[in-house]
Amino acid sequence: MELFSVKRVMYEKEEVMNFTEIYYEKVPKRLKELRKGRGRSQIDLAKMFGVGQRTVSDYERGVVIVPYDRFLTLAKYYDVSLEYLTGLSDQPGNFPC
């Protein structure tokens, strides 16, 4: 029984590490790539979504966690899947209708 608990804790720790790696490494890069691919500045994007330029910059630097509703809005705008936008997939897919 003790061994099972240790394995479970290690599994949960790996999951957290994977989330951290994905979120703080992949998401910021992906957001920046998508924005630049559309030929938009941070200021353009900020105006479109009603946030400050600093907020967009913080998302792209991984300083601030992007709220879920903002992920939905960004995925729809870029027409990519949430899995792609959040770094869980390398296939852009399309935003679900």
Q: How would you summarize this macromolecular structure in one to three sentences?
A:
This protein is mostly helical and 97 residues long.
**Overall helicity:** over 70%
How many helical elements? 5
Measure the end-to-end span: 46 Å
What's the total number of strands?
Answer: 0
What would the principal axes of the Cα set say about the shape? globular
Helical/strand content category: mainly alpha
Strand content: under 5%
CA radius of gyration: 16 Å
Average pLDDT works out at 80
- Low-confidence runs (pLDDT<50, min 5 residues)? 1-11
CATH C-level category of the domain at 2-65: Mainly Alpha
Helix and strand sequence:
HHHHH
Largest pleated sheet: none
Assign the CATH architecture of the domain at 2-65.
Orthogonal Bundle
What's the helix and strand layout?
Layout: H1 2-37, H2 42-49, H3 53-61, H4 68-78, H5 82-85
Task: Describe the 3D structure.
- The chain is an all-alpha fold and 97 residues long.
- It has a domain at 2-65: Orthogonal Bundle (434 Repressor (Amino-terminal Domain)).
- Helices cover 70% and strands 0% of the residues.
- Helix 2 (42-49) packs across helix 3.
- The longest helix has 36 residues, at 2-37.
- Residues 1-11 have low confidence and may be disordered.
